[in-house]
């Protein structure tokens, strides 16, 4: 009986040592596998940083596509505002509204969050409210002198703007 108990004790010690060795081996293997995966991730990130697009041969613009899309949405809002201002100016020069051309543009749905992040508009003082009231109206003398030329220029500019906006 005593030999049997000693044998069980020896077996217990042997099993515990075996478990420790096996656990240590599996932990070492997992650590090695994690290190290998980490190195692969670093290599992939570096490759993406130096990637070149096959269509244009240019490097990627940014690492985060969310911010790229956000910038484009903000720029679209600014461009639409500018289009409205330009169409207002052109309609004053041409003597007819340009809004029928604007209906062909597909308006984007932009959340109020996106609009709140836009910031100041690209105001090139095309229709400044304060200067419209403080300065005398010189448009009549200019349009009387070169009205046909200005109509042609305004129409050409509007066609070009509409063509550019319709490509989007």
List the SSEs and their pairings.
Blueprint: H1 2-49, H2 65-94, H3 99-102, H4 112-116, H5 129-134, H6 139-167
Helix pairs in contact: 2-6
Question: What do you see in this structure?
Answer:
With 168 residues, the chain is mostly helical. It contains six helices and no strands. The chain has helices spanning 2-49, 65-94, 99-102, 112-116, 129-134, 139-167. α2 packs antiparallel against α6.
Task: Provide key terms for this protein.
168 residues; 2 domains; rod-shaped; 6 helices; mainly alpha
Helix content: over 70%
Domains, number: 2
* Coarse shape: rod-shaped
Reported for the largest beta sheet, the result is: none
Q: Quote the beta fraction.
A: under 5%
**Terminus-to-terminus distance:** 90 Å
InterPro entries: HD-Zip_IV
Short description:
With 168 residues, the chain is mainly alpha-helical.
């Amino acid at each position: 009986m005593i030999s049997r108990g000693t044998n069980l004790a020896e077996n217990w010690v042997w099993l515990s040592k075996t478990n420790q060795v096996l656990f240590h081996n599996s932990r070492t293997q997992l650590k090695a596998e994690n290190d290998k995966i980490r190195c692969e991730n670093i290599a992939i990130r570096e490759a993406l940083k130096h990637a070149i697009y096959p269509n244009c041969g240019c490097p990627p613009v940014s690492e985060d596509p969310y911010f790229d899309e956000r910038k484009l949405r903000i720029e679209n809002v600014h461009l639409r505002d500018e289009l409205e201002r330009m169409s207002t100016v052109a309609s004053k020069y041409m003597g007819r509204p340009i809004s029928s051309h604007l209906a062909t543009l597909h308006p984007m749905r932009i959340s109020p969050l996106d609009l709140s992040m836009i910031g100041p508009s690209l105001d090139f003082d095309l229709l400044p409210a304060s200067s419209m009231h403080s300065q005398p109206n010189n448009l009549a003398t200019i349009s009387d002198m070169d009205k046909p030329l200005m109509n042609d220029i305004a129409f050409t500019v509007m066609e070009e703007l509409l063509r550019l906006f319709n490509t989007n």
